[in-house]
Design brief:
The protein is an alpha/beta fold. The protein has 15 helices and eleven strands. The longest helix has 36 residues. The N and C termini lie far apart (63 Å). It binds pyridoxal-5'-phosphate. The site of pyridoxal-5'-phosphate has 15 residues, from helix 6.
């Protein structure tokens, strides 16, 4: 039974805090001893946790000990250099420190007044990041949790721009509203569909535009779809172009799409959740060339800028529309400085918000622009090298171009039907992931089961990529 009715005594926190920091250091130093993908069965971890909460308090030492005993083999280690699945978001040590500080402040940045430093650091970090990715000053920005949330706010703004009084009257039961349509490519992320669902536009509110052989949206098909919709009384309102699609990292032709958006007065949102950070690299400036015409852009530092989950940056040239869509100020949230300051709660659905900008402050200052650029550039070079290894082997096949750091490929030893090759690759991926050495993910491209390898971890070195390649080849050839 704890004998005080306040918080943990400071000395106990100091002791446990040092212990936890030591644990984190050892964990990260020795991370390669774990399998990157947890090998446990569903329900295993749950069954280790008592069904009832403790009636009286326990020593924190026992909780810390249980991290190893109860949790660790149920962790899929995103920070493991063998983790090459999805977009392999990793956390850096400066980012981990910032998370600790954020919990200590427990600042809630709903209003400027509820922590002036919160709102102002966020503004300053948005300003830094905007310059880092080469966006002009007329882009305003805000930090949300994820790209899904950022894109949902983009779609909400696009809808608000139509002046259809949806904020006041809603959409259901109105026969004065046209059917609204948003366009994105067949390769766009499912978060766009979810944003549309959330906003009551429905899945039919989205038209998926076909892609070319490089998985890029075909602008002519976009324009054709818009024209057809207009002819059928449907109102086009938004186009989402992706810079770095999830499956192959293809880049939609933003310049041409932007011209079409201008002609039909449509909101252009760019989903650059993964690849947006590469705009920091001088020789990659081409990816941001056409951005300046976009109404909004999302970039996730938590995907490829070594930022612990979560941190997504949403930029827009039209913050007043976002505010018009969401601002609602009850009496208890009014302050004397409302006319002088920006209250972040006015720009989205959430009231309370975490102090995420601390992570940018620590990470950008610690690594500097040069340090970040060099790391991301190295990942792109390693991916090109891996792609060349694939291209050099007769029994492997690359299935998409590699503009960034993700390689799509399959094993194809020949003399098999497409169905058999798919089954072979499914089994290859299963065996690779069961090896406990690396973790890869998959997608399907033109009906082909495709293995994806992503490089982007702060802990990735050439030896990890080489090791992965040797393992993939050995397992693949043992399947014959
Ligand atoms: N957009 C793209 C292109 C993605 O690849 C992803 C996730 O991988 C998302 C959006 C969604 O990201 P989040 O998990 O931050 O919502």
């Amino acid at each position: 039974m704890k004998n005080n009715l306040t918080d943990m005594p400071a000395e106990e926190f100091r002791k446990s805090g040092y212990k936890l920091v030591d644990w984190i250091i050892n964990y990260l130093n020795e991370i390669e001893k774990y399998p990157p993908l947890s090998q446990i069965k569903p329900g295993d971890i749950f069954s280790r946790i008592p069904k009832q909460p403790p009636q009286t308090g326990e020593e924190i030492e026992r909780v810390l000990a249980d991290v190893d005993k109860v949790l660790i083999d149920g962790i899929t280690h995103w920070n493991h250099p063998g983790f090459m699945a999805y977009f392999n978001s990793t956390s850096s040590m400066p980012g981990i420190l910032a998370e600790l500080l954020s919990a200590a402040f427990n600042a809630n940045g709903m209003l400027w007044k509820t922590s002036p430093a919160f709102t102002e650091l966020e503004k300053a970090m948005i300003n830094w990041f905007r310059q880092m990715v080469g966006l002009p000053e007329n882009y305003w920005g805000i930090i949300y949790d994820t790209a899904s949330t950022s894109s949902m706010h983009a779609i909400a703004s696009a809808r608000e721009q139509l002046n259809l009084e949806i904020r006041e009257k809603g959409m259901a039961g109105r026969n004065d509203l046209p059917k609204l349509r948003l366009y994105c490519s067949e390769q766009a992320h499912s978060s766009i569909d979810k944003g549309s669902l959330t906003l009551g536009l429905g899945l039919e509110g989205i038209k998926k535009i076909p892609v070319n052989e490089k998985f890029e949206m075909i602008p002519e098909k976009l324009e054709q779809a818009i024209k057809e919709d207009i002819a059928n009384g449907i109102k086009p309102f938004c186009v989402v172009a992706t810079v770095g699609t999830t499956s192959t990292t293809s880049v939609d032709p933003v310049k041409q799409i932007s011209e079409i958006c201008k002609s039909y007065n449509l909101w252009l949102h760019i989903d650059a959740a993964y690849a947006g950070v590469t705009a920091m690299i001088p020789e990659m400036k081409w990816i941001s060339d056409a951005w300046n015409d976009a109404d909004s852009i999302v970039i996730n530092p938590h995907k490829w800028m070594f930022t612990p989950m979560d941190l997504s940056i949403y930029f827009t040239r039209k913050p007043e529309i976002l505010k018009r869509a969401f601002s609602l100020v009850p009496e208890y949230l009014k302050t004397q400085v409302d006319d002088e300051v920006e209250n972040l709660m006015d720009y989205g659905i959430q009231l309370g918000r975490r102090f995420r900008s601390l992570k940018l402050w620590f990470i950008i200052r610690y690594f500097g622009i040069d340090g970040l650029v060099e790391r991301i550039r190295k990942h792109i070079q390693l991916a090109k090298e891996f792609a060349n290894w694939i291209d050099d082997e007769k029994d492997f096949e690359r299935l998409a171009p590699v503009p960034f750091s993700t390689v799509c490929f399959r094993y194809n030893p020949g003399n098999r039907t497409e169905h058999e090759i798919n089954k072979l690759n499914e089994s290859l991926l299963e065996k690779i992931n069961a090896s406990g050495k690396i973790f890869l993910s998959h997608t399907k491209l033109n009906g082909k089961f495709t293995i994806r390898l992503t490089i982007g971890s702060i802990r990735h070195e050439r030896r990890h990529i080489d090791g992965a390649w040797q393992l993939i080849k050995t397992i693949a050839r043992s399947l014959n």
